[in-house]
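User: Predict the full complex structure for these chains.
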Amino acid sequence: MSNVRVRFAPSPTGGLHLGGVRTVLYNYLFARQHAGTFVLRIEDTDQTRFVEGAEQYIFDCLKWCGLEPDESIQKPGEYGPYRQSERKEIYRKYAEELVAKGYAYYAFDTPEELEKMRVDFKTESNPSPQYDNKIRLKMKNSLTLPKNETESLLSMGTRHVIRIKMPEQENISFTDMIHGDVSFDSSVVDDKVLLKADGMPTYHLAVVVDDALMKITHAFRGEEWLSSAPVHILLWKYLFGLDKMPQWAHLPLIMGPSGKLSKRDGAKYGFPVFAMNWTDPRNNEFTEGFKEKGFLPEAFINMLAVLGWNDGTEQEIYTLDEMIKKFSMDRVHKAGAKFDYEKAKWFNHEWIKKLDVKNYKLKVEENLTAAGITINDDAQFEKILELVKDRCTLLTDFVQQASFFFSTPAQLDVDAVKAKWNDEKKNFFIAYTEKLQFISNWSLITVETVFKELAAEKNIKPGELQLPLRIMLVGGKFGPPVFQIAELIGKDETIQRIENAIKKF
RNA sequence: GCCGCGUUGGUCAAGGGGUUAAGACGCCUCCCUUUCACGGAGGAAUCACGGGUUCGAAUCCCGUACGUGGUACCA
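Assistant: Here is the predicted structure of the two-chain assembly.
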């Protein structure tokens, strides 16, 4: 029995992108590997950024990826609630405790005053002044106000926040599972707001309180959080004790063509960044996801796993179980990685080839149906998928690669044939259809044998005739071996397609 | 600006004092295939730069440059 507890704590403000899913994956792998618990906590403390449906969307994405949490709002354990907005009262208590201990203070500065401060103290050498140990004594807070005035402001219900009082000069360091020893000088860290004027905690307070209360043992998050780690470490020290603090791992960032990949990037690079389709309810902006783009979840998480991690061998294709066995945080790369869509597609292609078609035929059928094709014979369908899967990089490619098995190609690549078309060939095909009529045991072999014998008889190279036949049956220069296709579409359909095509050449 | 983190081919990356500096994606050539793919064989990096340390450095140390993240009552 392990007591490892990890957590993924997204804020439900939009689509779930690559980096988020990878963070989930690493959490999940670590939890499974240590027979631990994977918790999903919703960080919805910013009420101004609430987005309808975003929470459910996150669950849907995790379900699709096969990375479902052990504890969450949908599956409560003993550490709920799992939604921070429902834990509001808890945080105030800890914030007050910090004030009482002298580690934090009340600040009454209005947004306008803060803005004024930033303008007034802005210099060339300090373009973005912080609310820190150097200026907090020039602001309106319980450090600068007489005690009784602070009390009266408080009792009057004056809007205020609680800020951490960063030590003047203290070296704050910790050992990160990926980066090793990291240290900061407290004098350059600002007095972060812990409790907002609306009574909600900021991420800084909430993450520490919740990790402590939810008994999190290992905390994994993106590297963008590294800079605020000193605040969190101090909070742990003041509130719960450093010995209880989880081990941190700051994951390298996944970069897009221009910097950190973010939710706002949507699909503007020509490839998806979200796990699944997402429509922003605020502006109806639609963003295509990896799922709908035609990715297999197996490929998606595989690709994500090795974007920043490898096991030291040459293996690249991993099942979830293999990843659980082999994953280790100390083999996670330190530097950020630029996402390569071409490689992502390669992973998908590999998984399409590797997996039995039963694993994805439903999804393909869905695509085919949307294209107006109805599947009647399931066994035949599977046979077809098996035949064309090597040619499909995305699940959506099956539409192009398999449609002609079910319906006569709408368009024929006439140009591919026309240049070398002549009466001799035309006569060959007319004769061929006549012979096909008499085949009783319709199969790849018989169809091909008749074809070759007739070609020999007419003294035409079979190779000269194969492309035309392909165009007749498929419509274009692609697909499995022609006779295989003829076998599958059947006698009548084969003959009919040849006859129809002849008229068009 | 300040602080943190990072830096091996176009991209993902192995390698952590002595190697011909793995492998994969993509690209190119060829083979297979009288379609397209699959598959197979090849081609293209001296490890950001400058100093050290050492018999010896991609590997250790220090600078510089560059990249990236943070610098919000957002997460």
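Chain A has three domains: 1-71+253-355, 87-208, 408-504.
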